[in-house]
């Protein structure tokens, strides 16, 4: 006994109306920026012995420096060789600005930072 009168009674519902009441007013909370005291960053030191608090032994020390030739130093020397300035080859190794200055703690020999000009 199929009446055949079974029409699809699916009513296409309209999309539910958005109850969203517009953009909510966002409270402007200004978070006070915490005042951060400037911290001496160990990675940026000068080419000279610097007063510093050692990270290892926490002593107030003046760093002990060691200058070491860097790749740039060797490149300068090589360049001087190439252009024929043999007597000048040693100059890059003598000029501090061509060398890397490493800072060490005189107490515990901890590496504290370096200065690369
Ligand atoms: Zn130390």
Radius of gyration from CA coordinates: 35 Å
State the order of secondary-structure elements, H for helix, E for strand: EEEHHEE
Shape, principal axes of CA atoms: elongated
User: How many strands appear in the DSSP assignment?
Assistant: 5
Strand composition percent? 15-25%
Low-pLDDT residue intervals, each spanning 5 or more residues? none
Structural class: alpha+beta
Counting DSSP H or I runs of 4 or more residues, the number of helices is 2
> Largest beta sheet: what is the strand line-up?
3-4-5
What's the overall average pLDDT, rounded? 80
Bound molecules: zinc ion
**CA distance, first residue to last residue:** 97 Å
Task: Please give a quick description of this structure.
The chain is an alpha+beta fold and 117 residues long.
Verbal overview:
Belongs to the CDIP1/LITAF family. It is a peripheral membrane protein. It is found in: Endosome membrane; Late endosome membrane; Lysosome membrane. This is LITAF domain-containing protein. Residues 1-25 are annotated as: Disordered. The protein is an alpha+beta fold. It has two helices and five strands, in the order E-E-E-H-H-E-E. The chain has helices at residues 71-82, 91-94, and strands spanning 51-53, 60-62, 64-69, 99-104, 111-116. A three-stranded antiparallel beta sheet has the order 3-4-5. The longest helix has 12 residues, at 71-82. The structure holds zinc ion (ZN). The site of zinc ion (ZN) has 8 residues, from loops.
């Amino acid at each position: 006994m199929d009446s055949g009168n079974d029409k699809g009674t699916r009513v296409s519902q309209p999309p539910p109306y958005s109850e969203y009441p517009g953009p909510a007013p966002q409270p402007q909370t200004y978070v006070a920026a915490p005042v951060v005291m400037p911290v001496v960053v160990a990675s940026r030191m000068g080419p000279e012995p610097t007063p510093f608090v050692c990270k290892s032994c926490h002593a107030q020390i003046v760093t002990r420096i060691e200058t070491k030739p860097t790749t740039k130093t060797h490149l300068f020397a090589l360049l001087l060789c190439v252009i024929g300035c043999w007597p000048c080859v040693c100059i890059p190794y003598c000029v501090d600005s061509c060398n890397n200055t490493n800072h060490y703690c005189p107490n515990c020999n901890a590496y504290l930072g370096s200065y690369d000009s």
